[in-house]
Amino acid sequence: MNIESINIEGQSPQQPKPAELVVGVQFKTAGKIYSFLTTDPSLKTGDQVLVEADDGMSVGWIINPPREFEASHAPKNLKRVLHRATQKEIEEAALRREKAMEYFDICKKKIAEHSLQMKMIDAEIVEGGKKVIFFFFAEERVDFRSLVKDLASSLHMRIEMRQVGSRDESKLLGCIGPCGLVTCCSSHMRQFQSISISMAKNQGLTPNPAKLTGMCGKLKCCLAYEQEAYAELRQGLPKLGAAVEGPKGAGKIVDLNILKRDCSVQLYGGGIIRCLCKDLKILSKDEKEKAITAMRTAEHQEERSRDRRSSNDKRINRNNRDRKHVKKG
């Protein structure tokens, strides 16, 4: 008889331990995604769950469904998903949000009373209602110590003030962009990218601040969307202002269409032509000087030819007048 196959009376067989899975949870629309541990493989995108957070229990939305992970690649000190959020827990979260907005209005009044150069953006209650975080925007650093004391005595809670930048301000408030849609940062962008004016230049856009800046006053985040494609398409194309030799002579590039891969060339001899970039030869500095010298020589010769023709025409006209005068005499 196999002794291992005998169960001791009154004891049930040991159940296998559920597999540890990791899910992605967000707490705000287009907010950062945080990783949490769970043993419930039935969770799906959009489910509301109650999780352990640094500032207490919080209700969030599943963004990345449960997946297996290697222990060596897992982030350290991961919190856990407790369970699917109940209707009561969802309602309590909504009530906390409404209460936070009441504190938001109180803080705005206190800021006006203290005459501080601050713009209130948002408020959030954390740590089970023991602490409130106020988000504000200011151009410069603000001394809000007296404001914090006043709020603490009025609300009887711990107070935290967080200053945010202009881009975070637009993200938290939500704006309608020049395109007529909700700004990308408020709808789907989770992290801001570094945007530079060179991105606009690479895409052939006119460096007009009125058209390139977003509602936050910074360069539009959407400039980065096609940057990689334009960088790839620009390979092998000449730059604006480059000296080139084309089918109708030498000149410099004054306009470039990256998508069509053609350009406008202002000829050194005068006039503008449109041609494909592949039909052009980029000139070196010496070749450019030679082309300009040749053009000036040709212009000088042409000018001398015009002067000679003009002199000949004048002489012929003068002779004709003399002949007519002789005949009349």
Runs in which pLDDT lies below 50 for 5 or more consecutive residues are 1-6
Helical content class: 25-40%
Oligomer: single chain
**Count of domain modules:** 4
**CA gyration radius, whole angstroms:** 37 Å
How many β-strand stretches?
13
Mean pLDDT score: 85
Outline the secondary-structure elements:
Blueprint: E1 21-26, E2 34-38, E3 48-53, E4 56-67, E5 81-84, H1 87-114, E6 119-126, E7 131-137, H2 145-155, E8 158-164, H3 166-173, H4 184-187, H5 197-202, H6 209-212, H7 227-233, E9 243-246, E10 249-257, E11 262-267, E12 272-276, E13 281-282, H8 285-328
Parallel strand pairs: 7-8
Antiparallel strand pairs: 1-2, 1-4, 3-4, 3-5, 6-7, 9-10, 9-13, 10-11, 11-12
Helix pairs in contact: 1-2
Structural commentary:
- With 329 residues, this protein is α+β, with helices and mostly antiparallel strands.
- It has four domains: 21-85, no CATH class; 93-164, GMP Synthetase, Chain A, domain 3; 172-229, no CATH class; 238-303, SH3 type barrels (Roll), CATH 2.30.30.
- It has helices at residues 87-114, 145-155, 166-173, 184-187, 197-202, 209-212, 227-233, 285-328; strands at 21-26, 34-38, 48-53, 56-67, 81-84, 119-126, 131-137, 158-164, 243-246, 249-257, 262-267, 272-276, 281-282.
- The chain has a five-stranded antiparallel beta sheet with strand order 2-1-4-3-5. A five-stranded antiparallel beta sheet has the order 12-11-10-9-13, with helices on one face. Strands 6-7-8 form a three-stranded mixed beta sheet.
- α1 (87-114) crosses α2.
- The model is unreliable at 1-6 (pLDDT under 50).
